[in-house]
């Protein structure tokens, strides 16, 4: 058995029951053994974070900058190796794995800079002779709970601002992908992060996650994952009156209008719907297409899908890696059956496929003839499955696009400035893309959604300060 990757609590690597990290491209391959934390581990981690907060909250900005900068540097220097680990544990292709790793490094660099830019305000009071100052302070002990589909970017975009603004952390990564989160913590520790500032407790959501939710000592909780778990985070957080932030699911639309450049429409939606195996919260699964371009678009997209190579994530030439695990594969296949039963036409893909090694490979699936009321157009599948909804014109397309309880990302492919402008203003989503895939965002600008997709302040960019700091207004009579 390989060496156990331990939890990191109060500055010590702490063992526990071992859980194998399995490669979804080859289920015979164990990537490594990772400790399964307990509720007691979570409690010890929270206590350590609370203790460390007393000094870390007063630490100098140069120290915080240097640790974040060095962490970003090391991640960047090791991007091939970490990207490979990511692709092996999650199943996205190697270029996608390396790209996500580079993004994590850039996030650490961005927040290294932000430590030096944290500013307040001084205003005159309405009462003459009094000064009013507005300052930002760290929130305290922050719980970070992350999903499996971005194993390094999401831990990075929560950890880096938490540290930058002087908080201490208890992080629980998704059970399926502990490797990347463990690697970041190892890098932070070796680059000088004082003990207790970040604590890593890997393990089950219902055990470790639940213990974090229930703790009164966790002052703020940042969660990314499914709507069901997000609701539990919200209820538990309100019960102890803590600040919380939720990033959850999506059912993101992309509209293709008659005046679209067909090539742009096909590339944009093939990427949005199927790359990273469709396992992105920003993936487009509803393709809303006006009637004149509909047939040629479906034909061209189907041809493009047939060209996509589905294979081992780290094999050169693979476009689409495996689904992350058996239960997600079951869910994808279940929705393919539901769409068929509801009367959708499966024009391409949808079959389970075998490759050299045993893995969870699924041919990307495209449905046509679907209507907005079908379950395939209402519920998040979270796999390489997309459906086309034919509409008359832009007005109908917009109404269908907005007819969802979610509101993360929305896209439009058009050459009409008028429609693009109207859509940017009227799409009920946190992020809008014109002639670009809905998935694929920058790291220095806010990320997040509306309606049932998100709750609380935005993540990333300077907007991250809204969640990871608390504002104090002070009045002074000199
Ligand atoms: P999930 O909700 O099953 O798990 C997310 C995390 O919560 C994991 O670490 C899990 O162990 C933990 N958890 C589970 N039960 C818990 C409990 N009772 N208490 C505390 N923690 C618990 O989600 P997932 O399957 O890992 O991720 C897929 C989902 O994440 C999709 O819905 C996707 O859309 C969403 N997602 C959203 C964004 C976004 O930014 N909006 C980004 C990525 C993924």
Could you walk me through the main structural features you see in this protein, from its secondary elements to its overall organization?
53% of the residues are buried. The chain is globular. It has helices at residues 39-56, 61-77, 79-90, 94-115, 153-164, 178-190, 205-214, 227-239, 262-274, 291-307, 326-341, 394-402, 417-426, 465-468; strands spanning 4-5, 7-9, 12-14, 17-23, 26-36, 121-124, 131-138, 141-145, 168-172, 198-200, 220-224, 243-247, 252-256, 284-290, 345-348, 352-353, 361-362, 365-368, 385-391, 409-413, 431-434, 454-455, 469-476. With 478 residues, it is an alpha/beta fold. A 7-stranded mixed beta sheet has the order 15-18-19-14-13-20-21, with helices on both faces. Helix 1 packs across helix 7 and helix 3 (79-90) runs antiparallel to helix 6 (178-190). It is built from 14 helices and 23 strands. Nicotinamide-adenine-dinucleotide (NAD) is lined by residues 145-150, 172, 174-175, 205-206, 209-210, 213, 224-226, 229, 232, 247-250, 281, 380, 382, 408, 453. Nicotinamide-adenine-dinucleotide binds next to helix 7 and helix 8.
